[in-house]
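Repro:
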Amino acid sequence: MSIPTRAAVVESGGAPFTLSDVELDEPGPHEAVVRMVATGLCHTDLGVASGALPFPLPGVLGHEGAGVVEAVGAAVTGVAPGDHVVLSFTSCGGCHDCRGGHPAYCATWLPLNLIGGRRADGTGTISRAGEELGGHFFGQSSFAERALVDERSLVKVDPEVPLASIAPLGCGVQTGVGAVWNVLKPATGSTVVVLGAGAVGLSAVMAAALTPATDIVAVDRVAERLTLARELGATHTVDAAGTDLAGALAEITGGRGADGVVETTGNVGVLRQGVDALAARGTLVVVGAPPFGTEVALDVNGLLGGKRVVGLTLGDAETQTFIPALVRLVKEGRLPLHRLISTYPFTDIDQAVRDMGAGKAIKPVLTF
């Protein structure tokens, strides 16, 4: 029997979100029905809604959900009705990278999460008036009052922590934190540069502040975000709108260059500047995603000093251990995620989209 609910549907590429009555399929053996309490709005949602990625529309997006489990399939063992959960990406669980603890690099990641719109077996999860909609986005499609969630997207969390305060952990925050903790792993006295002070970049700043790095540099074009970066742990800020970035970073690092750079902007010109600013044996983590097919030119001889350029998906995190650790840090005040969040009623999703696009909101969170 299908489950009625209300969702924000994107009818076609570039169309606004429209609230609509829809039906969820009944949960399969490895699925759960979750009553949504909050869900973050991410640039990936906006990119798909614009038609920039081949996700099947009309469809239901949303991939930073948090809520309460209402029902579980027969084979679900990790959660039970009444549990509080954060929703993240899904994965097959059986490929080489999943078995090795790197589910963000699952062999079937793209169709399961970003562009498929259906379960792995090809069946749909959401319909409207008998017509199938694109769904199963990151195994959740959480822009809805209820979501049908793949078991591997579910992470049980501490019920004492308000769900609206931790919804963004499912994507943006774990991406920024994972770039620092799982890839850069700053050594004592090292320098970390974060290019872009949006939700992912500021998460990277907060993560770097919890490491032995002594210089943490935030770079952006918006003065208010640089001020916030300082308050969240940056030791230096660079206003890219009016400053020579290469010169500023050379001065901060004493000419040596940065040990680690996190590139969150998706701008290939900024990426190139970040690579050029690396110290010998330094690492740049590519997080920002420009349109498919985008290329960047690099000075090959400049790389021969041991520089590394590493792509990253979702922080290379194993969600069942990583997200509960982040929840604890939020609860204890050591990861002040609330400084990034602006809340909106679910019915105001289009206002949240506009505010995010205008830079008025760093991390909009929709509440139900």
